[in-house]
Amino acid sequence: MAVETKGDRWTSSPVSDRWSGRGATAAPLAILLVAAALRLPLLAAAPPGLNQDEAINAWDAYCLLKTGADSNGAAWPLFYTRGFGSNRSALFLYMLLPFEALGGLSVTTARLAAAIYGVAAVLLMYAVGKRLFGPACGLLAALLLAIVPWHVQLSRNANEPTICVLLVLLPLAALLQAQLPFRDEPDGPPRAVWAGAAGVLAGVCCYGYAAARLFLPLFLTAAVLVTWRAWWRCLRTPAGARALAALALGVAATFGPLLLQHAAHADEMILRGQQIWVWSAGDPPIVRAAKVIARYPAHFGPDFLFSRGDHYVIQAPPEGG
To answer: What pTM does this model have?
Structure first.
């Protein structure tokens, strides 16, 4: 651990002291350079060609930039963009806008956005890991994310999955900055402004790729439940009550409309999922669960991670990775 407790005070430990000075800067910087070296060069050439998902994202973002509507004529879409008729999440389009505003419409511009967000995720992984478990853990987590093959590949594609790791880390970093009890004992009193920002970020990040939309609420809820006693103590203090109220307001303002949209227009919101479910429409629940369980372990094998991917050409390393 990087810190040790004495009553209610957090003090530096010998481990923290060893990471002070130049080493505390040089090691994270070296990892960021590795992450950038794997993600930034030759973006227009590797992966070879622009797949259809990248193309529609880049074009939709460019249409928004020039006309205020996507390629299907929807003005500033919020909950989804139709794309090729699959109702894809729209958040990534807005994250492309600054890059296309500066660099125009091109393969390099679209993929540069993905690469920059990928490097940013590595930096946030270090910051969050260090804050939760100490500098050594932060460095190891950042290094693994910097070199893990699937994150490298996704960071070189202008697709929505590119930002999944970033979408999980952003609200987590804000929660830690708000001094909320994401771990048992924060470093100081809760900060209402940062708590409100964390709530807004948590909600906004759920507008991204569907995997993050499913994972992030479950992850944050589980984390709160694990440390519920600390959250209860936080709520019983005036500063903690203000911070938690700000957090709840931020979540309600951003995640609330998305939740209502899912409830009122479920078929439209999960259209993409309906097109790619591993099960058939007529399968009973137990068969659906069995198909998911049967398929899941293969995602951790060397064939999927390093050799052929999921055998879909745009995600198979020899052709598109």
So the answer is: 0.84
Cα(197)–Cα(249) distance, rounded to whole angstroms? 10
One DSSP character per residue, 69-118 reads: B-TT--BS-SS-B-TTTT-B-SHHHHHHHHHHHHH-S-HHHHHHHHHHHH
List the chain pLDDT tens, one digit each, 321 residues: 444 444 333 344 444 445 555 667 889 999 999 999 999 999 998 888 788 889 999 999 999 999 999 998 999 999 988 877 778 889 999 999 999 999 999 999 999 999 999 999 999 999 999 998 999 999 999 999 999 988 998 899 998 889 999 999 999 999 999 999 876 566 788 999 999 999 999 999 999 988 899 999 999 999 899 888 989 999 999 999 999 999 999 999 999 999 999 888 888 877 777 777 788 878 888 988 898 888 888 878 887 777 777 777 766 666 665
Q: Do 156 and 209 meet the contact criterion of CB atoms below 8 Å apart? A: no
Distance of CA 110 to the CA centre of its chain: 18
- Rounded CA separation 257/34 (Å): 39
**Residues 6 or more apart from 210 whose CB is under 8 A from it?**
89, 272, 273
Q: What is the rounded CA–CA span in Å between residue 229 and residue 225?
A: 8
SS3 assignment, position 5? strand
Q: Which residues pair with 24 in a beta bridge?
A: none
**DSSP code for 301:** S
